[in-house]
Amino acid sequence: MNLNRAIIVGRITRNPEFRTTPNGQSVASFGIATNRFWTGADGQKQEKVEFHNIVAWGKLAEICNQYLNKGQLVLIEGRIETRIWESPDGVKKNRTEIVAENMQMGPRAQGSVPRESAQENNSQNNSPVSGQPQSSEEEINIEEIPF
Fold it and tell me: How are the residues of the chain apportioned to helix, strand and coil, as percentages rounded to the nearest 5?
């Protein structure tokens, strides 16, 4: 039996790049950085950062595009694939990616909003988006929470 499964938790290094293929399939590409800490033989703390290329397809691509932002903590579960192609100048290239199958967002930074919501709010009232309630008397109704 073979298994190709990757699970990473890290911070997004660039906002998702969203596009649609010629046949109408949605795809989002973005990067995630993960780091590892250890104490070396000399007793000094050390850190190594790895950068991962992530590709999401279909509905997951749309969700990633709408809700993920640079710097945000995210968990990605998927499979590792290496694409090989030839560039226009005849050079053979390859890129190893994690094809996302599941995504879970980390805690949202206080005052943050999805990119599309921020763009809509800015175009509606031409004021900066603070993510804070407009009124200090606005309360959260527990019945409205979807979980």
Answer: 15, 50, 35
Q: Which of 45-59, 97-111, 121-135 has the highest mean pLDDT?
A: 45-59
Dihedral sign, Cα of residue 68, residue 74, residue 76, residue 81: positive
Query: Quick check: 111 and 131 in contact, CB under 8 A?
Result: yes
| Gap between the Cα atoms of 27 and 83, Å rounded | 15
Give the tokens for residue 72: 């945000």
Give the CATH number, domain containing residue 32. Answer: 2.40.50.140
Q: How many domains does the chain have?
A: 1
CA distance 89 to 84: 15
Determine the Cα–Cα distance for residues 4 and 93; give it in Å rounded to an integer. Answer: 22
Q: Record the pTM.
A: 0.71
Please give the structure tokens belonging to residue 109. Answer: 């930074």
Residue 85, both tokens: 């192609």
